[in-house]
Specification:
Order of helices and strands of chain B: EEEEEEEEEEE
Oligomer: heterodimer
Order of helices and strands of chain A: EEEEEEEEEEE
Radius of gyration of chain A: 14 Å
Number of helices of chain B: 0
Helix content of chain B: under 10%
Distance between the termini of chain B: 31 Å
Radius of gyration of chain B: 13 Å
Number of helices of chain A: 0
Structural class of chain B: mainly beta
Strand content of chain A: over 45%
Number of strands of chain B: 11
Number of strands of chain A: 11
Helix content of chain A: under 10%
Largest interface: A-B, 24 and 27 residues
Largest sheet of chain B: 7 strands, mixed
Shape of chain A: globular
Amino acid sequence: AQSVTQLGSHVSVSEGALVLLRCNYSSSVPPYLFWYVQYPNQGLQLLLKYTSAATLVKGINGFEAEFKKSETSFHLTKPSAHMRDAAEYFCAVSVRAGGTSYGKLTFGQGTILTVHP
Amino acid sequence: DSGVTQTPKHLITATGQRVTLRCSPRSGDLSVYWYQQSLDQGLQFLIQYYNGEERAKGNILERFSAQQFPDLHSELNLSSLELGDSALYFCASSVQEQETQYFGPGTRLLVL
């Protein structure tokens, strides 16, 4: 079974500062990893995904994440925060083909990002 | 706009009642997933269908059921509703299993 832990339920940064949202995963088989963003009263939007190609993955809105197998981590970063980045961010894991989960996503508890002017 | 549509957007009902949530996947997507988002449980996988066939079940209560129709839209039926069923219910779709899932805007259910 797979699981995801997001360290820090709330992260607060100043506009222009580095954004770092932490995600650690557990999976008995090689994983697919995802970051989704949820703006207030909206659905989940895919930011980026890791599917075993390059370990540094670039996504939309200037976000990127690095897959580190040795640390079982997939932290999300953005060099310079904007006010519009304020939202809740979810890390998720699914297993690759061959498992029995058929692609279901297991989500972390979410991290609310606040950006101060 | 992800291309996944869900109706209704909001639903208010009473305990003991039954409701049906509807999801239309993106054009061409064969796989549909249902998730529940609540304050205490977070985002949890409920059930998945692929081309009309049930493929995987998660933490779905026996009072809940779902199906995927020949036109690939899906319905989630919630019966004997309890206060604790109040949540956001998301539908997601993907072209094939294991592919990226695209989420609908959700249905917010309030059970009074």
